[in-house]
User: Fold these one by one.
Assistant:
Number 1:
Amino acid sequence: MSRQLLSMALAPLLGLFILCIGNGFLSTLITLRLDAAGTSAVVIGWVSSAYFIGLALGALFNDRLLLRIGHIRAYGCFASLVAVTVLLQGLWLDPVSWFVLRLIGGWATVGVYLVIESWLLASADTKVRGRLLAMYMIAVYAAGVLGQLLLGATTAMGEAAPFMVVGLLASLSVLPMAMIPRVSPLIEHAEPLSPLRLITLTPTGVMGCFGSGLVVAAVYSLLPLYLQRSGLGVAEVGQMMAVVVLGAMLLQYPIGRWSDKHDRQWVLIIIGACTAGLSMALLLASASWLVAGLLFLLGGGVFSLYPVAVGHAADRAPAGALVRMSQGLLLINALGSMVSPPLITPVMAVLGDGGLFWSMGAVGLGLAGFFVWRRSVRPAPLPTAPFVATQTQTLAGAELAVTDDLVQGAVEHEHLEDLSKAVPEVVVAEPVVGPPRADDAHIAYYDDAGEASRSP
């Protein structure tokens, strides 16, 4: 990677890392603070869902602002709005107000990801794009781990202190972006495929992305609630959430490499079954070390579900639909995240706090069953689209993340049947008597006996 490219990527990644430290524990903080105030699990679920609603809305509309004012100014607007919404939450605690503020915060946060993703992906060619995406993923997950570990320390400083820290970090993240050269890459707006068209094109990919949204949103929004109600303190909840994110960071790439070498449908089936099994095991686990180990494995599994599902969809899609398919799958994932808390919290109200893992187990088992059925209906071809371990991206980021390998793999798959029908013509020539001509001395054939002969 050239020094010029590294200098172009360093400032955006540094700004993202600073902002994500605060965002890393914000969802956990909001869940714990509402629960401490006596708010019901159903209301907590709706407040958590507001953030994902904002993500979905921002994924549809934020690219227009970016195209109008450019990357640097757009980042400043989005990061400042994140800081304002968080600081307002620290002024008073009201579920209705927090619902609105979380919705606006989600809209602004996905705008930040849009700026960073499109900047990184458009700044490099395909030879180094994978490494930039790996750096992007490491920055996000490392900041998440650090943020969860800081939760206990900031909470001990006072009730409003955590919100002030998140707001300060969001404001501070503008500085690296403001100091980079004013050279903004261009992005193009593209409309996603309709959900019905996506279901027809890749049912397994659609269900995998939707199920990923369900379980990942539950982990971020409702797992802290379960841990606190099980008797853990705020600092211990942050440590357990850090273990989950650490599992996502360390296990996603090995699982992706595994899916490159084997049938992705089988990988999805195993991930779904493991999600169900780990969820049931967490219901029975009591020792803290055992709970931490199971959460580490659960984080690695549920966070790998989305990229493996996208890789499977790319194996099936024609070359011309890769970009719009990726964007549509992002919206499907956002819809799953949006409905997850309102669907799971009523189960927790009926079955108790363990309803979280009953729900996640049911989702994992349902996904495994669906993938088995789809494999019996339409067996998967040999993998052609390599796995890329990335964060769930915005629309523009997904458009620019479609690599040449994905396109080439889809083209080869599309023409595989035609190529298999082609029969090479066998040319049998008689041995040449006499010296060859100078103009055709480079042309040679082989007769039935395997001896070289030249065209007459």
Number 2:
Amino acid sequence: MTFKNIVLMGTLLTWVSFTFASDKATAVNPAVKIVDKQLAAYNNQDIDAFIATYHQDVEIYDFPNSLKYTGKENLKQNYQGMFERLKCLQASSKKRIVLYNTVIDHELAEMCTTDKHIVDKSIEVIAIYEVEDGLIKRVMFQR
């Protein structure tokens, strides 16, 4: 085995161990847990469980820094009508990057407006969630 092969093998082993360690760390990351809980509440159209995942002083932005609103009451006002009106909501993370208290999701959101079995609207967004004290403190959406 040449030195070059040994270096390549070492690099591969380092990458594999980092990848598995990162996946394991991501699975237990509190930021990931609260974002996943928020997505589940969204999909269940459970406004109370959804709002419970957010910090009292949550800030919602349109990318890059356009503040749309703050606070849980405004968040509830913005989502409650949609939760009541739509026949189904289904959001999922297509790709995810996690770094400490920040979760960046490429999300696909699908909606049913007239029949709960027919998805008639879908959008893709980038959502950047910042978590503080175990709750979502800031969200920035790129649409």
Number 3:
Amino acid sequence: MFDSIGEKIKKYAEILFVIEVIISLIGAGIIGFGNVSGAVGLLVFLLLAVLFIAYSYMSIIFIYGFGDLVDNAERIRENIESARWNDRVEVNTEPERKRGAPIMYNLGGKPIFKDRETARKNTESGWKCMRCGAQNENGNSKCSNCGMQRT
């Protein structure tokens, strides 16, 4: 429902603009031809139609711009996430992963977990060593198994 919300906002703006143009033409016709007939009525109709459509365009441009802003923010978020995954410097071997160590680390040496649940488990009940995968207490600054410094 909320996937690609920016595209949906822009589509809504386009549909709303078409509806407003139709209503503007009907309103300009009622005002222009209802009060004055002939060439003057046509002139009033055309003038009001241009003014109403211009007003519709100016009001819809903000809604469309907001949808574009949402799209751009989503693209920026995706690029940041992609950059995080591309900052890998070390990849654990298969045995280390089986012991619960994170799959990879970023440039700062911090472990990157594939999902929030794994990250929560590895910080809630202590921490797992990045090198050997041993479970340590939160108060320890070094691994009790291999002596690696906690990052």
